[in-house]
Description:
This protein is of the alpha/beta class.
Amino acid sequence: MTAYRSSLMRLLEERGYxxxxxxxxxxxxxxxxxxxxxxxxxxxxAPSLHVGNLVSIMLLRRLQQAGHKPIVLMGGGTTKVxxxxxxxxxRQLLPSEKIDxxxxxxxxxxxxxxxxGDGPSDAIMVNNAEWLDTLEYIxxxxxxxxxxxxxxxxxxxxxxxxxDREQPLTFLEFNYMILQAYDFLELSRRVGCGLQLGGSxxxxxxxxxxxxxxxxxxxxLYGVTTPLITTADGAKMGKTAQGAVWLDGEMLSPYDYWxxxxxxxxxxxxxxxxxxxxxPLEDIGKLESLEGAEINQAKxxxxxxxxxxxxxxxxxxxxxxTAETTFAGGGMGEDxxxxxxGEGMNIxxxxxxxxxxxxxxxxxxxxxxxxxxxxxxxxxxxxLMLSPAAEPLxxxxxKKRHAxxxx
Length: 407
């Protein structure tokens, strides 16, 4: 491990956030002597962020915990272009009204993790539409575009991988890296931002912003990237067979969010506790040393602590108690997801409506495999009609997915 002196860099390294750093010695010295404003950008492609964005949100939280200033940059402008990083095809272009609505919805998440205000280390939120929407094309090309060579832009992974796969890359998307570099320049000028953080796939974009600002303003900026956060099976964080793990409680219930973390692989628990909870490292060390069936206790702690950060302690404890009632006691916790049967519903449709299966075809396959139970009795008929009853019915898929069917 690098012998960092600043509390910021030590915190990031000890908890496993650091993959690459530009000028680590200089950044460490800067963070030791003054408050460093640092930013991460979030494009507004949906009404909510998801678990795949959580490491970035936690990075900003760590920045603030170490006494520095987090800047949440909402991509009101860049969302109109689309980041090609890690994408196989162009992003669907959203109208400005939809982007603005998404930003308004996303704002709520950050207040759970960051303290906003006017103090030196209080977080602020800005929207890059403030400067990108007013750019004039020819002046922008003359001032900024001349600092980028096509030769180098073609070497960045976000561009090269699409071209290697012979998949279309529009000129619109090709401009994204220039706009993101310009964001860093603008934030440096407007709020004294000296640091950009992001995932490892953003390294090229971060370096572009550092070099652009040095060339135009002569200001020294820094960058830090995190490792690509994947689960033990190599899957990207935030995606499951049931879809995205949303951070908005109206799009994914606190109970389902708790279950996502409870279902973590044994080998992921220690790493996830460091990245996604505020538990002290000493406590995490004890939890990750557990073996056999005892590792489940560490998973419960992970699920409860991660859920408490997003949804509050009360919601996290309710989810834990619901799971305990459902799994250990064979009962039906009141906090389970619910589905109204209306006048009646086919069981395959119910599974899909709950999000337990992505399609009715998949629901029927699960029923054929004997993985579906109604009030703990295995269901074998995919055409079974469910009728409203006075008491809720418990519908289960496997051992970990449960819901209540109500009138």
